[in-house]
Amino acid sequence: MVRTDPLWARLLVIFGAVLIVLSGGTLVAAHTVINRVTGSFTPGSLLEGAADAQDGPAGNDIDGAVNLLLVGIDARPEGSSETAVLSDTIIVLHIPQTHDQAYLISIPRDWLVEIPPYGKADFAGGAYKINSAFSYGYQVEGTELEKRSSGMTLLSTTLNKATGIRFNGAAIIDFAGFAGVIHALGGVDMCVDEEAESAHLGVDAAGKLVQGWYSEDYGIQLPAGVTPLVHKKGCRKMNATEALDYARIRKSLSDGDYGRQRHQQQLIKAIVKQATSRGVLTDLGKLDSLVKAAGDAFVLDTGGVPPADFLFTFKGVAASDLTLIKTNAGNVNTVLVDGIAYEDLDAKSLQMLAAAKSGTLSTFLIENPQFIARS
Predict the structure, then answer these.
(1) Could you say which protein family the record assigns here (predicted)?
(2) Which of 63-67, 117-121, 287-291, 294-298 is least confident?
């Protein structure tokens, strides 16, 4: 099933209306936004077919705990590689049945898991890094949205097999597409917790940012006279280019991909906080401008549940209630298999994911606060 509503309209539904509620706006205003853009909304495309492939009963309804699968993608220019879209970030958004808190659980992209067979893409299955699931599922014939739908289907099925978590819905986030949102907000407040050298941006003699590119063999490639941008420790407002660059860094961090996961979580939270603090989302005119600037940054599937039900159910969750969670308590746990490095989740991390499945994550975190990341 393919959507017929424009991408900016889908973003307006979830991003705009949710933040209207979070910013203290009225439910009437949020409902007005929904009515304006959901006339042609077609649910069920991102996870189409996933329910048949996953074990166990259907996902929790809106009256219980909710788990949403968020996938950040690295969209490459057409023809630049064999796989045009890679899953760069995998996050489980968990909201307990009390609906008064929200948790972002980052899944290590190098986690070694068993990916099930997927006939639609002629994929036989096997043990791979979990971020491969989206890529293998993506290799089907069809439109770009249908390809991404297949990628999400295989990824959600893989996560279900590995953790038992059922997903009420899913979203694809193009982090590069967030540049328009951050620009419309006038930047976001970010706190650099460790000095980090960019792998994609440089600074020339005049202090101007220069876009570079990264090579696995030679590192960052920059024009002559340009040096890599170094993000210094401390809190400050970042523009879109700086914030997105900071959220991509992992090579120069002491905790590698765990640091990048934390920074991407912080960026999501910073965008929410900045949008709600400015009050732009209580003004429908400003909201339209903000959303149109975002372009196709966000594609949503609510699993057949009307977006309004999510909005009204989660009206008690504020931006400050968003808690960032790290697996392995943020400690790298590398295993080598046939010379390839993978990330392995320890027993406590698997208990944490089981707690998200059972709706007892809040209790687990009280007993294991080391899994809470700095925000």
Answers:
(1) Belongs to the LytR/CpsA/Psr (LCP) family.
(2) 294-298
Residue ranges and CATH numbers for the domains of the chain are 7-186+278-371 (3.40.630.190)
Distance CA 375, CA 373 (A): 6
Helix, strand, coil percent content, the chain, rounded in steps of 5: 40, 25, 35
Structure tokens that stand for 316 in this block? 């008690």
Residues of the chain with pLDDT > 90, as a percent, come to 33
Quote the pTM value: 0.75
- What letters, b where the CB count within 10 A reaches 16 and e where it falls short, cover 84-116? bbbbbbbbbbbbbeebebbbbbbbbbbbbbebb
29 is written with which tokens? 């205003």
Which sign does the torsion angle of CA 108, 112, 114, 120 carry?
positive
Strands 102-107 and 234-238 come out as: unpaired
Better pLDDT: 155 or 291: 155
Q: Would you state the pLDDT for residue 97?
A: 84
46-49 contacts at long range (C-beta below 8 A, 24 or more positions apart): 46/148, 46/149, 46/152, 46/153, 46/169, 46/170, 46/171, 46/172, 46/299, 46/300, 46/301, 47/149, 47/152, 47/153, 47/156, 47/167, 47/169, 47/170, 47/301, 47/303, 48/1, 48/149, 48/153, 49/153
Higher-confidence residue of 288 and 254: namely 254
